[in-house]
Design goal:
347 residues, mainly beta, eleven-stranded mixed sheet, six-stranded antiparallel sheet, 24 strands, globular
């Protein structure tokens, strides 16, 4: 029997209903996206801080990398027959001191740039342990009175490099244009390289940077000339170049030249008035346990200062009228230890 049209329609509807039921029935409405499904914003990168600049400890000048080598100090002759000296133009710091006969000698310090040859090297004096002690490293000298040599050798922070002492004789020679005894030359760069295991020096002074200004420029006054006298017959002059801010050095009213014929200059001139007493027949500048007045010239300006030195191993402390450490201009420095009996003036 044929099914009627109505019967077939009902059957089709029932099959369709079954298919819908098998597929889950009526479709669910689409769910709204949760907050976690939304796109995460890209975080703003944290800026990388600029690395602190590396500066040479004895000049405050920026360098590419830390100088992991010891300082080389030397007792340098300043007798008229010893000029022009070798290597003074490359020094980081020079100390000038009164010796016998009203003359002066230098304790010169190299670290940032050590020349192959320096000299003429001369003998040690009683104030030199206090000058050399804070630097560590090595100090070269050509002997001296036995008790002065012993005092220098007793400074635990410094290694004594004595001409004729045996241990370091290979670094010395005699030569150059000067006659003996003003002709002892030290192979300084080789000495430094062969003793790289020794510690580099600590800073001796504070230097200006992007956040600080030299004290002479913040609290001092203008200056163009410095006139110093270590003794009746030994005068020193410094004149400031307004274009560069550097100080050019003279002795006895004549330009003080290096071995290349160029005038010696400095970024800073530190003038300290000191007490000098006789040690036998040798004038001794009194440093450890002493203090005094002075002034500092940086750029074409100057500022009065007070200095003190508590012991051999501590650098000379220099402060302004407010008791704050004096800040120097980055560059090389000459320290003039002018006797109280001498004179020092600024104009």
């Amino acid at each position: 029997m044929r099914a009627s049209r109505a019967t077939r329609t009902v059957a089709i509807l029932m099959v369709a209903a079954g298919l819908l039921t098998a597929c889950g029935g009526d479709p669910e409405p689409s769910a709204s996206p949760s907050p976690s499904d939304s796109e995460t914003p890209t975080p703003t990168p944290t800026p990388t801080p600029e690395p602190e600049p590396i500066t040479a400890p004895l000049t405050g000048v920026e360098v590419a990398a830390e100088i992991q080598l010891p300082a080389i100090l030397a007792k340098i002759d300043d007798h008229p027959d010893a000029r022009a000296q070798f290597g003074l133009e490359a020094t980081d710091i020079v100390y000038e001191e009164l010796v016998e006969g009203g003359l002066t000698r230098y304790v010169a310090v190299w670290h940032s740039n050590v020349p192959q040859q320096i000299g003429p090297v001369r003998s040690i004096r009683p104030m030199d342990p206090g000058i050399a002690g804070p630097f560590g490293g090595m100090i070269a000298f050509s002997g001296g009175q036995p008790h002065f040599v012993a005092a220098m050798q007793a400074v635990s922070t410094s290694t004594s490099v004595i001409h004729g002492g045996g241990t370091y004789d290979a670094y010395y020679s005699r030569g150059g244009p000067h006659a003996a005894p003003h002709n002892v030359i030290l192979q300084a760069a080789q000495l430094q390289a062969d003793n790289a295991q020794l510690a580099p020096p600590q800073p001796q002074f504070a230097y200006s940077d992007d956040e600080t200004t030299p004290t002479s420029q913040t609290t001092g006054g203008p200056a163009s000339q410095l006139a110093l006298a270590f003794s009746q017959g030994q005068s020193r002059q410094w004149g400031c170049d307004a274009g560069t801010g550097r100080w050019a050095r003279g002795q006895q009213g004549v330009a003080d030249l290096d071995a290349n014929g160029n005038q010696l200059t400095a970024a800073n001139v530190v003038v300290l008035r000191v007490q000098v007493i006789p040690n036998g027949n040798i004038p001794q500048t009194m440093l450890e346990g002493y203090s005094g007045e002075g002034f500092v010239a940086s750029g074409c300006s100057w500022v009065p200062v007070t200095w003190s030195k508590p012991d051999i191993a501590t650098p000379i402390q220099i402060v302004d009228a407010a008791g704050q450490p004096v800040v120097l201009t980055p560059g090389n420095t000459w320290v003039e230890l002018v006797p109280n009996e001498g004179s020092a003036s600024v104009s």
